Amino acid sequence: MMRVFVKTTFVILFSVTALFWIEGCKRKPDTAVLGQYFARCARFESTEDRFFVVDPNTSRAVPLDQLPRFLFRSADGQHTAQQLMDLYAEKSGKPFPPEVGLQVASTLNQFVAKKLIRLSPTPVALPYYLATPISEQDAEKAKEEMEKDGFGKQKL
């Protein structure tokens, strides 16, 4: 009797877990981010042959692939992702592919979760130390402004 109960419980738990996993894979990303202004919350470095973000949670350099890199560089606080997609469609004469729009939304949601960008209903001005690559900044000025803003000291 106990064996049957354990087997039945295991089968039910396995089925429920599999169902949640499958449904999670089918879930579309939250596309509400596309209409929000997005601004960097992390410093970055960009050279001819490399691009990485300094993760504010760990201070590690994180390389980004092509789409995440484009989105992170575009996170100037002055545009929404939807505006960028509309601009692409206008310039190319083709509608923005919906599947790429979902990838954009998914990437932005991941950035928000990792605190690499923040969203705003209105445009946002970036501070000096987030506006340009680290190598193009005056180190002393960047340090002073980060200290003044408490950047890097906040609990993320």
Draw up the topology in text:
Blueprint (H helix, E strand, L loop, with lengths): L1 H25 L10 E4 L2 E4 L4 E4 L6 E3 L2 H9 L1 E5 H12 L5 H16 L3 E4 L7 H4 L7 H11 L7
Antiparallel strand pairs: 1-5, 1-6, 2-3, 3-4
Helix pairs in contact: 2-4
Low-confidence stretches: 4-26
CATH-derived topology? Outer Surface Protein A, domain 3
Global Rg: 21 Å
Major sheet size, sense and barrel closure = 3 strands, antiparallel
Question: What strand order characterises the main sheet?
Answer: 5-1-6
* Secondary structure tally, helices: 6
Tally of distinct domains: 1
The oligomeric state is: single chain
Report the helical percentage.
40-55%
What structural category do the secondary elements indicate? alpha+beta
Please provide the count of β strands: 6
SSE string, helices as H and strands as E? HEEEEHEHHEHH
Shape: globular
The end-to-end distance, rounded to whole angstroms, is 51 Å
> What is the percentage of strand-forming residues?
15-25%
Mean pLDDT: 82
CATH class: Alpha Beta
Describe the structure.
With 156 residues, this protein is of the alpha+beta class. It has a single domain, classed as Outer Surface Protein A, domain 3, CATH 3.90.930. 49% of the residues lie in helices and 15% in strands. It contains 6 helices and 6 strands. The chain has helices at residues 2-26, 66-74, 81-92, 98-113, 128-131, 139-149, and strands at residues 37-40, 43-46, 51-54, 61-63, 76-80, 117-120. The strands form 2 sheets. Strands 5-1-6 form a 3-stranded antiparallel β-sheet. It has a 3-stranded antiparallel β-sheet with strand order 2-3-4. A hairpin with a 6-residue loop joins strand 3 (51-54) and strand 4 (61-63). Helix 2 (66-74) crosses helix 4. The longest helix has 25 residues, at 2-26.
